[in-house]
From TrEMBL:
UniProt lineage: Bacteria, Bacillati, Actinomycetota, Actinomycetes, Pseudonocardiales
InterPro entries named in the record: Amidohydro-rel, Metal-dep_hydrolase_composite, Metal_Hydrolase, Metallo-dep_Hydrolase, OTAase-like
Matches recorded under CDD domains: Met_dep_hydrolase_A
Top-level taxon of origin: Bacteria
Occurrences of domain Amidohydrolase-related (ranges): 54-403
Pfam families on file: Amidohydro_1
Protein name: Amidohydrolase family protein
Amino acid sequence: MVTTLLLRSGKLLDVDTGEYAEGDLLCADGRIVETGRGLRAPDGARTVELAGATVLPGLIDGHVHVTAATADLGALTTWSPSYATAHSARIMGGMLDRGFTTVRDASGADFGLADAQAEGLVRGPRLAFCGKALSQTGGHGDSRPRGTRVHDGHQCCAGLGRIADGVDAVRAAARDELRKGAHHIKVMAGGGVASPTDRIDSTQYSMDELHAIVQEAEAANRYVAAHAYTARSVSRSLRVGIRSIEHGNLIDESNVDEFLEHDAFLVPTLVTYWALKTEGREFGLPEDSWRKVDEVLGAGLAALETAHRGGVKIAYGTDLLGGMHRHQNEEFRIRSEVQPPLDVIRSATSTAADLLGMSGEIGTLREGAVADLVVLDGDPLEDIAVLAEPKHITHVVQGGQLV
């Protein structure tokens, strides 16, 4: 296997400064070891001539569900684990082809998928996983219809959530996910679209329960991500020390200072609402859930603009389900309606790396970083469609290997 790779004559983007440097980039043993003009290829190195093509750090999606092969999340719990895994492998391979070399799974993926990817058994992005999301009874992670009482919470079930009620129970659930190696803990702190029995404007979990979950994560040097749409549910989450807010479509100006005060991240996922509205039912979204989409579809872009204007740290996320995963790059185009291209690129590189606790390791082309790279046939600073349309990706490098 080739361990040394030289990319010659590219335009290397420094995402911190927003400036290009023309030159070569040398990867060895999975790391970027040198950049500059006229680099010499070591013996046995593979050389790729880029002829002025643009080189970005490998992309990072901060909110995916690699096991969500259908938009009918309730049906997932009935799937065989092996069948769900086969779907996940296909989904992950597609993400890598779209330039995403690292993803943060926001519930569903487990240590098995992460280990399989790390060992080369599954082709896909590096996987930061949380296991099952914690949900109260009747919360966003409770996929049971109203007439169903039984809930099978076994770890091998393919669903995205686990139900835990009360301080002692949520502590035990958080500890169990951490025991299995969770990179972060996910909690459902408000209502959602794809859940059958809750309201989008509801808050979920008591403050005592949320605080207990945060305490357990912090004790393990991990953090909590919260599903939350409304200003009220976001505020409750930030006040107990939750580090990352997923979605946040219905935030307002009152939340901006709270994000800054608590040094928290916002991870909008605007593309999923566009996709759910246009083709969600085709890929299994139940009718009742489809009707909820309008409550968050229009507000998301305004919320993103509010957060961006206020200086909130914003990471890239997509949250796509079923056959809609193919729209993963469309989030770049949607965000560019209210953000400059460089800021959108940072959300999927350096800011996302910061969220994952991997600043300097990924999301950068600096020497010493992991050699994750995307090569494009155009300039995304001039036209964000170069990133929004995967046809413009000519090469993807992951860990120094041309994949």
